[in-house]
Amino acid sequence: MKLLAAAAGLILAARAAASPAQHPFLAHHDVLPAFFDTGFPAARNATPSLVSNAKWSKIETMAALPNYQLRIKQPKLCAENTTQYSGYLDTDEDRHFFFWFFEARKAKREDAPIVLWMNGGPGCSSFTGLLMELGPCRVEEGGKTTSTNEFAWNDQAHVIFLDQPLNVGYSYGKDVFNSMAAGKDVYSFLQLFYHSFPEYSRSELHVFGESYGGHYVPATAKAIHEGNLAFSAKQEAGLLSAAEHEKRVLPLTSIGIGNGLSDALTQYKYYSTMACNSTYPPVLKQEQCDEMDRSYPTCARLINACYKWQNVLACYPAMMYCNSMLMKFQESGTNPYDVRIPCTGGNLCYPIMADIDAYLNNPDVQAELGSDVKEFTSCSQKVYSGFMLSGDWMKPYHLEIPPLLEAGIRVLVYAGDADFICNWYGNKAWTEALEWSGRSEFGSEKDADWIVKGKAAGEARTYKNFSFVRIFGAGHMAPYDQGQNLLDMLNRWIHKKAFY
Ligand SMILES: *[C@@H]1O[C@H](CO)[C@@H](O)[C@H](O)[C@H]1NC(C)=O
Ligand SMILES: *[C@@H]1O[C@H](CO)[C@@H](O)[C@H](O)[C@H]1NC(C)=O
Ligand SMILES: *[C@@H]1O[C@H](CO)[C@@H](O)[C@H](O)[C@H]1NC(C)=O
Description:
This protein is of the alpha/beta class. The chain contains 18 helices and 17 strands. The structure holds 2-acetamido-2-deoxy-beta-D-glucopyranose (3 copies). One 2-acetamido-2-deoxy-beta-D-glucopyranose (NAG) binds next to loops.
């Protein structure tokens, strides 16, 4: 989930950029204090050898990754009759990534694929997705208990929820503020995960994410794909060391991006459409949308510079200027993740977020899961600010997708049609604009109804291994709003069944 924009960060950034637009870097005064305030509990020196090992049921290592280990527990929470694991991937550079894994409910252990799920933010925990959207349980009001989610994604698939980048959720250690570096960490995590659980060694891998996951997913898939190519080349040349034989070609089969931000240049053009002329009643006045349209050419010029140089000097001003276009929406009081409802329950606009915080701050829950972190926050302001300042926001992560498609890795882009912040218009537009060998055929493909239980759940278009799905009646967190339909989407996708 969540939040691209709403969190206080955007408001700060936007306000700073909006007033003295000629001095975008003034914003530093607003943003830097949050950035340097190490309100985070950690930066603790928890190198593997120092961590108390008593609570873990096993600790896995592999010779091919000498500086990594996986600490594993078998918690009994959330889904009492489902095999589950939680724990940390540790590296010797003081990096500790937390994960929570659930086996498929209705498929054979050896056959079910693995879905890796990452929420966005940047800085939001994937456990928000677990406890609100697609995990086997949903948090109850007040955050003391959970109830079963019958449309959980671990229906036909095993699902791993991973807290990344570092210092998100229960993960902790050194900071990483760019999606590419984060993707490499996920590659190592998966190597060790497949190594530690041979019972899943045949499981195909699907990497899914939401929102800022539109960055993480392509970056992670690139790291996996390139890691696989390098491994295969070395293997074929007979150059693998004895230890390296433990590594494997990770069975990356597909990626999925839900209400993501991947191609800002295309996507920022459609905010006015979503605000004034969507399939839902308008949120802003036409003159406010006209103003957004007048700002877009400057925004586009700045994003183009970011795409060209891909450095902070070019990318940071683009983010500041373009996000200031969204101020009017922020002020409207409408939920930027769902134009049908008001923003209630604080920054993140959903009261259930406070319940998730309460649940994951419960010391009993933390002990059962094995968290080393005592203070859980759904979305880390520090990580959010760090990504903003690093210039990562506007970078062209969609460009990582064509090599995947050409290599036979399937790509699904889907979007709930009531979301403003990563709206379906912008997402559909970038899938049509994407330069790959099937571009013109994808562009001329018709949108067809995708039917679930006799009713149109949305529209879909597919050409070869590339699909775009628009989901009716869903906001940014589409599985929260349309659980049954999203499960249908996932199950069709992993079983290679068509949407229409
Ligand atoms: C788990 O299994 C036990 C024994 O079969 C059953 O009584 C219980 O209701 C199950 N719990 C859930 C949440 O399905
Ligand atoms: C609103 O959308 C409709 C249908 O997509 C389009 O025909 C119309 O030109 C749009 N109006 C404005 C003011 O952009
Ligand atoms: C589509 O993906 C499958 C793997 O699922 C692959 O075998 C096939 O070659 C791909 N097709 C194209 C046209 O890339």
